[in-house]
Amino acid sequence: MFRFALFTLALFASTYSQATIYKCMIDGVATFTEKPCGKDAEIVKITPSPVSNLTPATEQEQKQQKPTDLSVEGYLKIQKADREIERLQLEIKELQKQQNERINRLNNMTQDAANRLGAKSIDDAISKQSKRINTYYKSQIAILEKQVAQLEEHKKLLKEQSTQSN
Fold first, then answer.
1. Which helix (H) or strand (E) holds 133?
2. Residue 153 CB coordination number (10 Å)
3. 134 — alpha (psi -120 to 50), left (phi > 0) or beta?
4. How many Å apart are CA 137 and CA 39, to the nearest integer?
5. Where are any strands of DSSP class E within 11-112?
6. Residue 129: which residues within 8 A CB-CB, separation 6 or more?
7. How far apart are CA 93 and CA 101, in angstroms?
8. Which residues pair with 32 in a beta bridge?
9. Which residues, 6 or more positions from 63, have their beta carbon under 8 angstroms from its beta carbon?
């Protein structure tokens, strides 16, 4: 019985079905096939429901609303850009933290360490090393900030495209 109901539902659900369907009783069970399955096979008439109950104007409106799929895609791209921006900003913070830690370690420099660096004094060594450290980290941070700016611009373009398509 369950198979019969399921099959009947499937037949009615298919609005484009053009095949001839035969119903036979085999061992007391209704069986549906595309070919006659016995002498008692009956042709089942299924009238498909109209393809669309919508007026042509309503169908046109639905076709015009199709770009919302693109806005979903745009939304996902914006979310991806936001995640990448957040990742880059965390990386920038980590670099700044490392920079501060290295500068703080320099403040504990001894005269012996300053002599090995070829500096005249501890202050001179700290100054030279601080410049090196700051130059390195500023360049790394600048690269990441440039990537963030590019992603922000890309995100802005995606938002504009999304609003234009709606």
1. helix 122-165
2. 11
3. alpha
4. 88
5. 21-26, 29-33, 42-44
6. 106, 109, 117
7. 12
8. 23
9. none
